């Protein structure tokens, strides 16, 4: 099938075919190069990456593993990228240990250092884009970086620990997934699957309802708790209440202390899309990436004034969860003591329970939200849902199909879009529709074939990362099944596509190596370079056969030097 849908000429490139190979493909007239790989030095005292030992022991001096959300910042004529390192492959980083399980506190420290966030200066020179090694802006933020806790839950009993009896300071941010950027120039990093870092050394550990709802169990994913008491639920049961937040980082000040903004709720945060409503209030859209969980919105009490004090804009406001009705309308349900019957502060710690209490709409894994810069509308990628009808979410909510998540056994996902009443992002009401229902028209001829803007030449599954460019085109990144067989035959490796919100047309721009997802997207200051994250390749990318596969950020440019998007 032709990759061209042959409708508008909105796109400045010819769409590409699927790929199943071990490299990156972009359209004719475009080039790509590597900017940064897991293990690349941010400082000259760090050794070069070793394919024998994985990330180095001085791992807080190097680019971490599994790149995810990222944003670009300008400081004078310098450009900084803040970028997440979502998780870690223990087998790659602890190759000397059986199954990659840590056997010492030093192993745990190495794992903790290789995740979190990198801030790095980047520059384009004669040999392309590179990290500016030893830039004073370069910084690693990891699982042991001190952070301030701010907002309503700061100081609450649920956040107090022996090491922090006041409940106002925590070490580290973890499972940093998507990102956001504030108009005042700070980076938002989003804590997603934090539950997997905690475990119990006491077999008699019992899950509280709060632990159950967030998937916090006696068994952890990384065994930190065996060597670091902070992660041992039997010794520090409140420690996990200090994760699952949005964290604000000032990338322009390497001495600044990151701040956990509890007013934006605690759940498995995907990204944080910030818009300024027409009255100047700050609105943040937030997805909770789990089957049967919710889409959220935060609205500040205060108004953003350029150059003004921004400290309380993400501390004082109202949190809402989305309800989508079958008639194409929806509403934001405020999470307050009156609506939830919950303690005012607990709403910010057990936000999922609050959203269940008000009857928000259970969703097919809300991933990134992106707001259109040239129209008052926002989009959320609902990546997929294999458990529909098999089991309810951990709150026991009814997760049956509904208008906005209409398919059982939803292996392909969809993207929902909403337009607030009166073009006002603070309005309670909105209209919604499905921008795309992903599917496979080669394999199916029913609802699983996808919506009318899906055809054999552009099909994909599991939309995840999304961002708008300044011209109002929606870039869509996938994190899905890349086997290219069965239900997914003809869809190939994960990919990045571009959608026109007006016509609905979607075209394929990029494919990535086998096994990788595409996640994280930002542009250089002049918009002539695009930075794209490639996470968890299984193919030997980018260093070739026999070498460890390394997550990487690549730069895409036009050969004619033109603006991208
Ligand atoms: Fe880390 Fe939901 O993606
Ligand atoms: Ca994601
Ligand atoms: Ca995903
Ligand atoms: Ca991921």
Automatic annotation (TrEMBL):
It comes from the Bacteria. This is Putative phosphatase. It comes from Tritonibacter multivorans. The lineage of its organism: Bacteria, Pseudomonadati, Pseudomonadota, Alphaproteobacteria, Rhodobacterales.
